[in-house]
C-alpha cells in the first residue's frame, strides 16, 4: 500500500534511525561521494553528501545534505544532481527501499525516488537561506 509524505511524518525518528544504520563504514569520511568515480572538479568541491529526512509543514521529505569545499558552478551542480538522482533511483536508494523499517508495529519500505512528480532542488531553489548546501527531494 502506498502512503504519502503527510502519513510518514510520524515515522521520522524510525526512518532517521534506519538511515543511520544503513551507513557503511567506508562511507564515514565522504558519505555517498565515496562512490563518485570521476576525478574532476565536482569530486574536489563536494566533500560529502548524505540522505536524511525532515518534517516540512507536516510532510516528511527526503533531504540530501552536501558539504562543499567550494561553491559549485551551474554545470557542476547539474552533475551532482544527476549523481544524487542516480543513487536515489538505482544505487543506494534501490537497496535502502528494499529494507523494512519497523514503525510502531508496522513494516514500511521507504523510497527516496519515484518516477512521478519527483524533483531535486537546492535550498536556494526552494527559497531556503543556505544556498548550495542542502538539496531536497519531492517527497518520500
Describe this protein's structure.
With 140 residues, the chain is an alpha+beta fold. The chain has one domain. It contains six helices and six strands, in the order H-H-H-E-E-H-H-E-E-E-H-E. It has a four-stranded antiparallel β-sheet. Strands 3-4 form a two-stranded antiparallel ribbon. A hairpin with a 2-residue loop joins strand 3 (101-103) and strand 4. The longest helix has 16 residues, at 74-89.
Per-chain topology:
Elements: H1 5-8, H2 12-22, H3 41-45, E1 46-56, E2 59-68, H4 74-89, H5 92-96, E3 101-103, E4 106-108, E5 120-122, H6 123-126, E6 134-137
Antiparallel strand pairs: 1-2, 2-6, 3-4, 5-6
Summarize this structure briefly.
The protein is α+β, with helices and mostly antiparallel strands and 140 residues long. It has one domain. The chain contains 6 helices and 6 strands; from the N terminus they run H-H-H-E-E-H-H-E-E-E-H-E.
Show unreliable segments: none
What kind of sheet is the major sheet? 4 strands, antiparallel
**How many structurally independent domains?**
1
Number of helices: 6
The radius of gyration over CA amounts to 15 Å
Structural class: alpha+beta
What is the helical fraction, as a range of percent?
25-40%
Percentage of residues in strands? 15-25%
**N-to-C SSE string, H for helix and E for strand:** HHHEEHHEEEHE
Q: Looking across the biggest beta sheet, what order are the strands in?
A: 1-2-6-5
N-C termini distance: 14 Å
- The total count of strands amounts to 6
Averaged pLDDT, please?
Answer: 87
Broad shape: globular
